[in-house]
Structure formats: C-alpha cells, structure tokens
Amino acid sequence: MAAKSHNRQDGLRQSNKDQNSAVVNKKAYRNFELIEKFEAGMLLLGTEVKSLRGGTADLSGSYARIEGEQCWLVGATIAQYQQAGANNHEPTRKRKLLLHKAEISRIKIKLEQRGFTLVPLRIYFNGRGLAKIELALAKGKKQYDKREKIAERQQERDINRDMKKYRK
User: Fold this and answer.
1) Residue 12 pLDDT > 80
2) Residue ranges of the alpha helices (H) in 42-142?
C-alpha cells in the first residue's frame, strides 16, 4: 500500500513542476528552435530570491553568455524586493550561472558555430528550494518558419474538430 501512495506523490510532484516555475520566457519558445536544454544553478542575493518567489521577474530579451570559463545571465530583470529597503539589489545586473566545466566547454563549442544562442527558458525552484534556470541552445526561427508552425497547428485543430464526430 505504501508503494502506491509513494507513486501517487511522485505523480503529484510531476504535475506541480510547472507550478513552481517563478518565471517563463514565452518568447523563447516562439522565436527560437530549441536544440539542447541545460539546467544551471544561479548565484543570487537574498533579496533576489525573495523577489523570485513572488514571481516578479522578466526573462524576455535576456540571454546567457560564456566569458572565459564562466557562464553569465545577461539582460534578465528581477524586480527589487519591496521590504528590503536600502539593502536592495540592482534589478538588471549580470548573474553568474553555475554549470560544470564540461558543460561550459560543450556549450562554448556550439556557440562558436554560426547561428546558435544560449537562451534562458524558465527560472524555477527545485524540490530542495534552490533557484534553478533552464537554458537552451537555440537557433533563431525565420519569419516563414513561424508562419509554417502556425499553419500546422491550425490544420491539426481542424482535423481534430472534424474527427470529433467520429470518435463518439
């Protein structure tokens, strides 16, 4: 009986995965073709963590960059924490991302190739309460690729709508 409840809890954790997302970069999914995803830790100040828990951050227009042997998040905005007073953080500062050296070197090789970008997808809190960021190696979509994707979705909706009569 205990195994069933344990599995049930794991199922609940999976469904709550999106609920513990503090911020999602919706534009990244629309404007980029995602090739490979990475998970990284973030070096944050206390007021930044509290602000993230409140969901007051913006990833649109942000990107990650590798400088030397370190990875940095650039352009992300984490709003100032209201109750911090004078001890607040700078909202748009560069934040260090924590990745293994092997991952950094692999990403660096890909970024040197033409057309690849390191895009942040979402910031979330893992099961231990640590702030994590999901990054993706991505290639920018062209305008015709975006139109093609919209047309495919519309065709799929039309087919599902027509097939609905026969499924009953």
Assistant:
1) no
2) 46-53, 101-112
